[in-house]
Amino acid sequence: MDATEFRRRGKEMVDLIADYLENIEQRTVYPDVEPGYLRSLIPEEAPEEPDTYEDVVKDIERVIMPGAASPACTELETVMMDWLGKMLKLPEDFIAGTHGQGGGVIQGTASEATLVALLAARCRAVRMILASDPQRPETGITSKLVAYSSDQAHCSVERAGMIAGVRMKKIPTEQSDKYAVQGETLRRMIQEDKAAGLIPFYFCATLGTTPSCAFDHITELGPICNAEKIWMHIDAAYAGSSFICPEFRPLLNGIEFADSFNFNAHKWLLVNFDCSTMWVKKRSDLIGHWQIPLGRRFRSLKMWFVFRMYGLKGLQDYIRKHVELAKEFESLVRADQRFEISADVVLGLVCFRLKGSNEVNETLLKRINNGRKIHLVPCLLSGQFVLRFALCARTTESRHIREAWQLITQLAEEVMQELPH
Amino acid sequence: MDATEFRRRGKEMVDLIADYLENIEQRTVYPDVEPGYLRSLIPEEAPEEPDTYEDVVKDIERVIMPGAASPACTELETVMMDWLGKMLKLPEDFIAGTHGQGGGVIQGTASEATLVALLAARCRAVRMILASDPQRPETGITSKLVAYSSDQAHCSVERAGMIAGVRMKKIPTEQSDKYAVQGETLRRMIQEDKAAGLIPFYFCATLGTTPSCAFDHITELGPICNAEKIWMHIDAAYAGSSFICPEFRPLLNGIEFADSFNFNAHKWLLVNFDCSTMWVKKRSDLIGHWQIPLGRRFRSLKMWFVFRMYGLKGLQDYIRKHVELAKEFESLVRADQRFEISADVVLGLVCFRLKGSNEVNETLLKRINNGRKIHLVPCLLSGQFVLRFALCARTTESRHIREAWQLITQLAEEVMQELPH
Known about the structure:
Two copies of one chain form a homodimer.
Chain A (H helix, E strand, L loop, with lengths): L2 H20 L30 H12 L7 H16 L15 E5 L2 H23 L5 H4 L3 E6 L4 H10 L2 E5 L11 H13 L3 E8 L11 H10 L3 E5 L24 E5 H4 L7 E5 L19 H35 L4 E3 L7 E6 L3 H14 L7 E3 L2 E7 L7 H21 L3
Parallel strand pairs in A: 2-3, 2-4, 4-5, 5-6
Antiparallel strand pairs in A: 1-7, 6-7, 8-9, 9-11, 10-11
Helix pairs in contact in A: 3-10, 4-6, 10-12, 11-12
């Protein structure tokens, strides 16, 4: 939608809201629908090609208004999570509209999804232990539980452990393994912890880490977790959106071993903040803890609108364009002997640095950000200060990449003249 | 704002957004302001009388745009929480823009505020215990902690205890005490628990319970909590908005004993969902746990707009009107000998029932809700099935009250003819 159409449609929407409010007394205060009414009113999958805006707006009255806020809010959410789950080719276990036991729920942020999964895992672990040893006092179990995540995992994972009051151990990763958690490392830590009397119960794998977009080896890690009855949660906050493209879907292989999976549709799938999409294999594991807040906004509406206005193909194009732009930036970096690429460029993130000291790279970063034309957030990889060029704006084009690179090289020249490197 | 003005202003806003997007490349990607820049740009308190819409919109460019999303989002939130805290006449301890150590933060829902307070209390308790006995193993402490709330408290309070993995005990209340927690009861439970080796650390008081809008005696309970170093959190989810009126402010007396306080501005203060406003006496107690999610929306914008478009007087008028309408409904109930009032009408909630069996009241409720003209949610008070008439829509007028009462009495007549009572 360009600016001209946005102006037109936005103003129509203002009138639609005003009409609704002016005539609200003609509506009933409570819906007259059977639970589950909504699913049959809309397709089972997102469209491949975009729907028209007129059709989308007409469906507000046809699909939503009969079910008002409740049950429409929950039902549209369940169906939208199925749509998105199918776009991602999730195993049927995770899709609510099948004979499986799983389904999806929208969280506010990935932090909440990690915590919700951890709480469900803690409940399941305590239940299993009490089932095998009913005499054991429940209060002592939690203090023996141990959870794991990569040392590259987002800080919210460690924080979830603090909130739930359980031990959270970081699994070391190596540059030579591309910062991915290896099966062997997890297996060894589990064995050591069990020998010490602890109870491993939760592992949070990351697909697309924040620092370098690294991918834990879930095809190796999943079977270990399953065998040890450890809940495997997959946090793909950033990378998850890309799995709607067949060429990136292999990155999600191993999902069949997971108990829960989450990514932020608000990060890279054109759905406005907040919309963190989470699936579980067994809905019953989550009962009582579907989410931390009890009230909820009607967040699935924005998924419905976006999926229909873009169509699956439009969304795939969007992802591909960002990855292509990242590759274009990578080529520019690689063509310049003064720079080096610090991690594989898999999606829309390019980790790079000047061949030289951390000091020279820190100074370069400061100059870049002080210019306020582009903004980079750095990271440390194996002690090296690394600049991160992330593609994340809807309107970014090739010319922005070239302009950015020109600016970066110009500032790099200045910095290199001033500082020893 | 009536529908005509809403249409006009809404369309202007659509243009403003489109203009912003069309010209976004002319803006810097990162703000050039000093932290704390925002406070001096706006008044220290909410206006008494409404500001003009033009002034509000002009301030987006003047106040927000220079600080963009960050730091404007956090800074406006802090100042808006001060504005609202001053409207409520909170003790200075809770106001960030003073020399105190406290301040406010917006949560999504009261459930999150209860949990955040509980987590902060748990941290503080563990820290205090370790300070007095450094040899004590930390893992064993949590299993000894005990939290309290009223048996009338919202289910989210019990749930917060489950999430944090601590014992949560319900304090019994009596009809003769108007369902308020009494100091003596809390004191006795604390003594018994301490004698049993437990560590009381958290009490969640409720001002305006969900079933009957009962008020715990915080002037009695607060000093007990303070003496026992128990964190007192006050959940005033519904009632809190009314404390901006001097005549209802005495309901909050005792706030000076609290460590944290929360109410839902989205419930009764014309701010759209979600916006649950929470204050703490010591900011440092919350560090690391200001909120459960890490990402955040710019929720303070809607507080800013609403406070300025209504002014404090407009907001007070809105609260008073709902209370008056509730009193009007109460008079209608009291004037009809077949009905009785089941709990004091303090604010906008009227608990009432037919003098008769629970069955007859349940049947009446079903008939009322099946009509879909008004919607009532019932509760049980001391085993009695009670109907709850809650004033909560912006556009409710006296005629709606009279129409509702006419409908209720008409259905009551039908039910009483059909059923023995």
